[in-house]
Design a protein that fits this description.
alpha/beta, three-stranded parallel β-sheet, 3 strands, about 40% helix, globular
Length: about 110
C-alpha cells in the first residue's frame, strides 16, 4: 500500500524566507532603508534562535552599530546564535554570549598581525 501523506511540506526554506521578509516589511515599509531606532526591532523580526549570523558592516561604524543592536535584542526572542566573525574587537562581540543571545562562535583573522 502506498502512503499518500500530503501533510509534508517541501518548501520549508522558502516559507521561512517569506515569513522573515513579511516580518521585516512591517518595520522597513517601502524601500530598503531602516531607521536607526528600528534596527533592534528589525533584528528581532528576522533573526531566529539557532541562526548563523555574520555581524559585519561595510565600514567600522556600521559594524559597531550592528553589534550594539544585536546586543540589545531580547534574549527570549533571539538566542543560541552561531556567530561567524572575522575578528572580536568590541565588548558587544562578547556581551552577546554573556546575555545568552549567542552560543557558538567561528572566527578567523587574516592579516599582518596574525
Amino acid at each position: 500500500m502506498i502512503n499518500h501523506d500530503t501533510s509534508r511540506t517541501w518548501d520549508t526554506i522558502k516559507r521561512d524566507t517569506d515569513e522573515r521578509l513579511a516580518a521585516a516589511a512591517k518595520i522597513v515599509g517601502s524601500g530598503k532603508v531602516v531607521r536607526a531606532e528600528d534596527a533592534v526591532a528589525l533584528l528581532e523580526a528576522v533573526i531566529r534562535p539557532f541562526d548563523r549570523v555574520n555581524i559585519e558592516g561595510d565600514n567600522q561604524k556600521q559594524a559597531d552599530f550592528l553589534a550594539q543592536c544585536l546586543c540589545a535584542v531580547d534574549p527570549a526572542k533571539v538566542h543560541d546564535l552561531h556567530m561567524v566573525q572575522s575578528v572580536l574587537t568590541l565588548p558587544e562581540h562578547l556581551d552577546v554570549f554573556e546575555k545568552g543571545i549567542a552560543k557558538k562562535l567561528d572566527f578567523s583573522f587574516s592579516g599582518p598581525q596574525s
